[in-house]
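Morning. Coffee machine broken again, so started the prediction first thing and wrote up yesterday's gels while waiting. Chain of 567 residues, entered below exactly as on the submission form.
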Amino acid sequence: MPFRAPLDDYRLLLNHVVGYDQLAQTERFAEASMDTVEAVLSEAGKLCEEVVAPLQRNGDLDPAVLENGRVRTSKGFAQGYKAISEGGWIGTVADPEHGGMGLPLTVGTAVNDMMSAACLSLQLNPLMTQGQIEALEAHASDELKALYLPKLISGEWAGTMNLTEPAAGSDVGALASKAVANGDGTYAVTGQKIFISWGDNDFTENVCHLVLARLPDGVPGTKGISLFLVPRNIPDETGNPCVANDLKVVSVEHKMGLHGSPTCVMSFEGAKGWLVGAPHDGMRAMFTMMNNARLGVGFQGIGAAEGAYQHALAYANERKQGKTPEGTIIGHADVRRMLATMKAQIFAARAIGLSQAVAIDMGHATGDADWTARAAFLTPICKAFGTDTGIEVANMGIQVHGGMGFVEETGAAQYARDVRVTAIYEGTNGIQAMDLVGRKLMDGGEAAYGLLDEIEAFAEAARLSVPDLAEPVWQAAETLRETTEALVAMPDMQDRFAGAVPFLRGFALVLGGYFHLRAAMAAPGTAADRLARFYILRMLPDYAGQLVHAREGAAGLMAISADDLAV
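Came back before lunch.
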């Protein structure tokens, strides 16, 4: 079965589950009605189905390579990228002043979700550029905006982010890259960066690097870091990229997956760059786009899960093995269980992510701090649960294929290999969980309790219609409230960190139950209703064990010494 854009899921989610209607009622997004959104998503879906999805296997079998100092991309990627850029999809949420569509992030997120499902390796390219656009819109000078944003939004130029160094991974403050003023308003940037997604390509006129580096008077740690825009080719006074800058791709990593996406080691050798934002304020500029970047990576996981699910579903509908009413393996109870689990978990993760996107949009449209706090709280949950969902669903997709899933020719294993890195980059999922129980609970749990109040109020009302579904959701929310209170009361952060991952998982499961309940209430007697029943009665109960783990603290864990773990 060819890839199909999940437009029906989006109609249900946006209309009845995540509160998109609130956005259309704001002045900022008044023109983004559901009719407009459905038309936009339909066109994006066609692009993903007809142009992007056929490139999925090409990226795996014909990987990007470094030839004579330049990256040669996978067969067909240049044509696929051209279709994406000419359709305006890179600038879906960008400011119309510079050529963007100005649509809500919620809509752009849905487009990226479908594109990730179609071909994750290629989708990563526009995602990186979108992150750069956001940083420049918020922090660049008017001159830089005028020169770079139209080119980035149109897709004529591509963008990257250069944070990680060999000795400075998650600890960004340990970076060694330096920048020295040239005396003409530009800076000479020197250093090496690793794990740079799409550090080069052979289909855009220019590649523009956002690089974190330290000025001579920058203090140690993250407070002394500045952000610089360093183009591969320096534009002339008319904006044409002419002179090659003093930077190069040293190598392209040989990776487990995402072969179509070149992951580069970059060397900056006194390369000319322009300061973005104030000196020593680079991390704030980077954090401007952190919620959106982590949302984007969460949806890379969700998109990959969608692709893996559709791949497995097609196989289950075709593979004949044993006697079933359907004549194929989809009639076997265990295969049906796996497929239902995959679809139900994707729906839950997608709803959580879209809820975060709506909160970000509402924060921008209204200036209401409560929306901003909700978006921030949901960020680590979306990123971690979305990418965990990608990994788990892709792994289950291999199982649905049976022995053929272990054979590369079926394409089932590619989803698992491609999506695995999403739990690592843009902040590992362990770091996301630590952020959730640390920074995100610094408000005393206020943002968390706001969500739980909403869940319990809806479940109370739903008891009149579907008590067998509403009661488990209410009870789960109440247990989660008690666990949150216990974590907030823990004075030692190590105690919180010891249970951070299961707490995040438990919170995500409860949110998933809530969103499935909303879907069941909106569409009784339909597939959504039956899927909600499967999730709430069979999958939601896992929250209890996760929250027991979350409350245990660090003592028992840290009592297991390094010697105890030795082999």
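The chain has three domains: 7-286, 289-427, 429-567. Going to sketch it on the whiteboard this afternoon.
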